[in-house]
Design brief:
The structure is a single chain. The chain has about 100 residues and is α+β, with helices and mostly antiparallel strands. It is built from three helices and five strands. The strands form two sheets. A three-stranded antiparallel sheet has the order 2-3-4, covered by helices on one side. Strands 1-5 form a two-stranded antiparallel sheet.
Length: about 100
Amino acid sequence: MSGLRCQIAPGVTWKEIDGLVVAVHLPSGCYFSLNETASDVWRRALKGEDVSRIGAALAEAYEVDVATAESDATSCIEEWMKEGLVNSAASGAAGQPS
C-alpha cells in the first residue's frame, strides 16, 4: 500500500478551521472533523503524496516509527475511501478546500 494515492471525491467539500480539517460528504450530509494527525494526512494525501512519504513525514513530526505512521496513514485513507470522501488516484491529484 506504500504507493497508495488519493484525490477528493465528487460531492465532497472541505475547509481547514484552526488547523484542523472538516470535510462534508454532500450526498449524504455527513461531516467529518479530523484531529491534528488525520488533518496532516489529509493535506499531504490531497497534495499527491503517497503513503510512504506521508508515513515518513508523520514519523518525524510525531516521533513514532515509520511503519506505525505508514500503517496509520493507510488506515485513514482507506476509511475515507469507504466513506466516499476520497478516491484512489494513479498519480498525485490536488484537492483544494472549497
